[in-house]
Amino acid sequence: MGKEKNDLVYGTLDMLILKALELEPRHGLAVADRIQQMSKSVLRVEQGSLYPALYRLEAEGWIKAEWGVSETNRKARYYRLTPAGRKQLANEREHWSRITAAIDLVMSQA
């Protein structure tokens, strides 16, 4: 048996982070935990991918970071969606639906 892959499809990490922040602000590790929880532990985001993505999304203006205190009483940066981030999430969701429908069409061919 081959090794099971849990790698994210290129370009999906931003969408997943935006989705994880849709309902409430979260600190970085909580974002990764939420993605893992929502995917029923199929998807795991490594810190080496997570933090550069968070900084990139912040530079795009799609999320905003503020310092706060975590559940373990540690100083942490909390990220929240901006209005532009909500719009981007809607765009990403629509694009994902189109792409996955097209892939389904290809994969269902004899």
Please describe what this structure looks like:
This protein is of the alpha+beta class. It has a single domain (13-107), classed as Arc Repressor Mutant, subunit A (Orthogonal Bundle). The chain is 53% helix and 15% strand. It has a three-stranded antiparallel sheet with strand order 1-3-2. A hairpin with a 5-residue loop joins strand 2 (63-69) and strand 3 (75-81). The protein is globular and about 55 Å long. The two termini are 26 Å apart. The relative contact order is 0.16. The model is unreliable at 1-5 (pLDDT under 50).
Map the helices and strands.
Elements: H1 13-20, E1 26-27, H2 28-38, H3 47-60, E2 63-69, E3 75-81, H4 83-107
The low-confidence runs, each spanning 5 or more residues with pLDDT under 50, are 1-5
Roughly how many Å is the radius of gyration?
16 Å
Number of helices: 4
CATH domain class name: Mainly Alpha
Quick one: overall form?
Answer: globular
| Second-tier CATH architecture | Orthogonal Bundle
Taking strands numbered 1, 2, ... along the chain, how are they ordered across the largest sheet? 1-3-2
Q: Helix-strand pattern, N to C?
A: HEHHEEH
**What portion of the residues fall into strands of 2 or more residues?**
5-15%
How many separate domains make up the residues?
1
Corresponding CATH superfamily: Winged helix-like DNA-binding domain superfamily/Winged helix DNA-binding domain
Q: Can you give the helix content as a percent range?
A: 40-55%
Count all strands and give the number: 3
The N- to C-terminal Cα distance equals 26 Å
CATH topological fold name = Arc Repressor Mutant, subunit A
- Average pLDDT number: 91
Structural class: alpha+beta
Question: The biggest beta sheet, please?
Answer: 3 strands, antiparallel
